[in-house]
């Protein structure tokens, strides 16, 4: 009996340890921050234990041999047997991509939304007004928003804050994918950021673009005022 209990305890300890050290930050040539690695591994481990989906974050300096990012991800995917999703960032190539080992995994999250270059519906609406060439393109552009990675990557970083921008944007996207998978599977992630960060980010974007719209309004109002008074004195 003692042997059986001891053996069971040993197996359990090995199982727990293997899950704790599972590297969901699969490659990191950019950040090299222990806390960032711990945060990704904690969320990734919980997601895998509760859903069976392995979400790996890959952060490399540059794609090897001028490979396309999808080709690089296909090569990496050969290392995994379980259902796997790769979120990949190549710094010098300025590329971000999401690649799943099986097409069925895409049903659990919105790849287009996560990778959208636009964060808020206000921004997408303004861009659609300016750049769309048809009603169809207007509808497509106006509904393309909700990005949780590229809008943050596009923000300018002060000197010494570049790595913080990279880690913040990629973790934001990693968390977004994880939460969408969890919601689709009907479970809750204890270590997920939740909607608090997303709502804060959304509100800040609304305020920012609100100022832009207000500035445009004042500019047009001023132009109209000058034109009207100019005509009065002619």
3D architecture notes:
The chain is an alpha/beta fold and 234 residues long. Helix content is 58%, strand content 10%. It contains nine helices and four strands, in the order αβαβαββαααααα. It has helices at residues 2-20, 34-51, 69-77, 111-114, 121-131, 135-142, 150-154, 162-185, 195-232; strands at 25-28, 54-60, 84-90, 95-100. Helix 2 (34-51) packs parallel to helix 8 (162-185) and helix 5 (121-131) runs antiparallel to helix 6 (135-142). The model is unreliable at 7-21 (pLDDT under 50).
Search tags:
234 residues, 4-stranded mixed beta sheet, elongated
CATH class: Alpha Beta
What is the count of structural domains?
1
Helical residues, percent: 55-70%
What structural category arises from helix and sheet content?
Answer: alpha/beta
Radius of gyration: 23 Å
The order of strands across the largest sheet is 1-2-3-4
- How much of the sequence is in beta strands? 5-15%
Number of strands: 4
Uncertain runs: 7-21
Q: What is the helix tally?
A: 9
Largest sheet properties = 4 strands, mixed
Instruction: Report mean pLDDT, rounded to a whole number.
Output: 83
Rough outline: elongated
- From the N-terminal CA to the C-terminal CA, the straight-line distance is 106 Å
- CATH architecture label: Roll
Fold-level CATH name: Diaminopimelate Epimerase, Chain A, domain 1
Order of helices and strands, N to C? Answer: HEHEHEEHHHHHH
Topology summary:
Blueprint lengths: L1 H19 L4 E4 L5 H18 L2 E7 L8 H9 L6 E7 L4 E6 L10 H4 L6 H11 L3 H8 L7 H5 L7 H24 L9 H38 L2
Compact summary:
By secondary structure, this protein is α/β, with parallel strands linked by helices.
């Amino acid at each position: 009996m003692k042997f059986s209990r001891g053996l069971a305890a040993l197996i359990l300890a090995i199982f727990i340890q293997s899950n704790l050290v599972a590297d969901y930050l699969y490659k990191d040539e950019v950040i090299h921050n222990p806390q960032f690695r711990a945060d990704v591994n904690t969320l990734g481990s919980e997601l895998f234990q509760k859903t069976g989906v392995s979400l790996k974050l890959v952060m490399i300096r540059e794609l090897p041999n001028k490979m396309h990012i999808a080709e690089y991800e296909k090569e990496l995917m050969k290392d995994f047997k379980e259902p796997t999703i790769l979120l990949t960032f190549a710094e010098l190539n300025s590329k971000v991509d999401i690649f799943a080992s099986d097409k069925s995994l895409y049903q659990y999250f919105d790849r287009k939304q996560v990778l959208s270059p636009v964060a808020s519906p206000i921004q997408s609406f303004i861009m659609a007004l300016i750049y769309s060439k048809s009603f169809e393109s207007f509808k497509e552009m106006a509904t393309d928003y909700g990005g949780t990675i590229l809008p943050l990557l596009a923000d300018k970083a002060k000197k010494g804050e570049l790595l913080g921008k990279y880690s913040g944007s990629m973790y934001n996207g990693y968390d977004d994918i994880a939460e969408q998978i969890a919601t689709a599977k009907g479970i809750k992630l204890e270590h997920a950021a939740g909607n608090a960060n997303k709502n804060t980010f959304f509100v800040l974007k609304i305020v920012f673009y609100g100022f832009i719209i207000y500035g445009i309004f004042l500019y047009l109002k001023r132009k109209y005022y000058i034109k009207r008074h100019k005509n009065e004195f002619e």
